[in-house]
AntL
Amino acid sequence: MPQLRFRGDPSAERVRGDPLPSRPGVHRVPGDLRASEGDVTTVMTTSVKSATTDTAPHASGWHRLRVTEVERLSGEAVAIRLDVPDRLAGVFAHRAGQHVAVRHLPDGDGGTELRRSYSVCLPPAERSGLRLVVKRLGPGGFAEYATTRLAAGDSLELAPPTGGFALADHPGAHHVLVAGGSGITPLLSMAAAALRDDPRCRVSLVYANRTAASVLLADELADLKDAYVDRFFVLHVLSQETREAELLSGRIDKGRLTKLLALLGAEPDDDGFFYLCGPRGLVDSVREALTCWGADPARVRFELFSTGDGPAETIDGDVQGRPGRITARLAGRTTVAAMGPDDRVVLDAVLRARPETPYSCRDGLCGTCRAKVVSGSVRMDRQYALGEAELAGGYTLACRARPESDEVGLDFDA
């Protein structure tokens, strides 16, 4: 049975009321994790907008990349490394917390396209490249293919990084992260970026899993703890195994979260920012608990990971969308598509005219189909990917948007 005491987990000392330990002795620092602390690194800060210049490949659309390594993390999870050629370096520049959509058409699968979104998750010691962590939650889909058949030398098609799940620009902040399962993937990158780029900040992580065996990237989290022993704190909470400290065994409810936050020295003040990622049930529960605790909702950022255990959400109201004409700009080219009688959302119409249009979840979760409404109007039901600033700026998700005017113009390149 895996050990329940995680390297870098201060839980036992904290529950007894002792201060967070400064572990004695020499701490192994992998690679050059701290070599440029405070410096701004290229991979985390290069603007994606720079990829839309005339001299670079267009930032929209799909790009075929070669798989260089498939590392087995557990029986259900792998880490996939992909080669990004120099000509696409600007296109795949990303910020910590962003994700990419992946699509693949396996040979012999009867033409069934596999598609999913995954967070870019580099090891903390690395500053460039592209790595995705894929965990299989059930049969079928891209995750089953990736964890059972994908191998070095294969190729995948990826859309450029997207997503607004990002660190607050607040020097000296206390960044409090709450992850569930594979929700650790964007948060690990965000923790490493915060610690590296802001020597005054603190980062605390509450990581919820069912069992010790299901914890992803435990060694990389411990390496990060070794490198920033006084500024990075981790609490592992297991719902189906017993930890030495009772507080760390069970589901994260309001009472448990309040006590965990106290152990981490978190306060609902001007320096505290909260980042949540994982299944919808966990994220919704933690958001509600933080509100009751006194956290400003404006300081709580979250990203939902679809669990893959249920059907896509239905669109509220009528099943059919309004007839009309959709003008879509994608990869520098403009196409006109008509809403058909069975089309529910604008993505349905656009895909007939432009099959390469980026999308992934169809649930309003990932933001891959994000576009700016440049003419006409659309109505969008529930969505979880766009922030208030993006909505105010005229952005929508094609997988959730229905026309409210006879003509609608969308710019997927904006």
